[in-house]
Amino acid sequence: MSRVLIVGAGLTGSLCACLLRRELQSTVRIVVWDKARGAGGRMSTSHAPDASSQSADLGAQYISATPAYARTHHRFYSELLSVGLLQPLDCPIEGLKDHEGTENYVTPLGTSSIVKHFLSQSGADLFLEHHVTGLYRRGASWEVERKAGASETFDAVVLTMPVPQILQLQGDLGQLLSVQQRQQLEGVVYSSRFALALFFSPDAVVKVPWGAKYVTNSSCIRYVAVDSKKRGADAPGRGPSLVVHTGVPFGLEHLERDKEDVQPVILRELHRLLPGLPQPISIKCQKWRYSQVQTSVPDCPGHMTILDEPLLVCGGDAFTHSNFDGCVESALSMLRVLKAKFA
């Protein structure tokens, strides 16, 4: 049985693992490594330390399905709706610019619940805090090195982390890239931003008329959500949660500063915008160096094959576009490559 390593436990990696299991269950053993302490990637859900507050989505906020993707990806939307991991957005989002026919969905259990669902369905061996540092070709296999722990050998490797992290890998990857491939990868551009999650006690009340709002009168904050309200996830005995995303120019300006130094700046602006905000019991700050893809790999089928034997393929939203359906497209694209190899 061939061993396939998927690097990155975000949406693309988890769905790719799930589809592999469903299509090639008897021929491949799937292993997923992620450098973080939890699965989700940029679909990250954070929890208050004492569980007295609702959780908060620090990354993706909601999923927008265009009519075209609602048709072509119907099976994925249908699956997630049927198990209660998606539900229609039914609270107001001020400033949301919708295209005609677009359906918006939220995740009652947090966006990371979608990733965890696909990982569970995949039956993959998931290893967290496994930070890949190098790839070395060893005949018909790949030797994969990580920051701490012994290297391991795989018959195929799928890379789904942000492109700059792919380009930083040591070993044989650099010499295998063609000039055109390297230029395409180096041309990928990401936006950067900071995100805050504020957790409140059960008796706290956040008095705003919206579930989320796009902010237009701030050079710092671009988006605020009462996350529990936005997700329709209010529960008795648990306090509300608030999510704040900075604008991209602010994120870029402060990108190299420690997030502990940036957090007070964001909080001051938040209290200017929402002066009656109660005191949180806990705050988490996240720096998204690679937030959303602004410039993707051009004319790309959803993946890039670096080597056919042993197979090395890259995927993710940098090879499509930066949303749920872009990740689905990339996972499907990589599945076709893997099926051609192992079916």
UniProtKB/TrEMBL annotation:
Please state the span of the N-terminal signal peptide per the UniProt entry. Answer: 1-16
Q: Which UniProt keywords apply?
A: FAD, Flavoprotein, Signal
Q: Which residues form the Amine oxidase domain?
A: 107-332
Q: Which GO terms describe its molecular function?
A: oxidoreductase activity, acting on NAD(P)H
Question: In which domain of life is the source organism classified?
Answer: Eukaryota
Q: Which GO terms describe its cellular component?
A: extracellular region
For this protein, the record's InterPro entries field holds:
Amino_oxidase, FAD/NAD-bd_sf, RNLS
The name this protein goes by in its record: Renalase, FAD-dependent amine oxidase
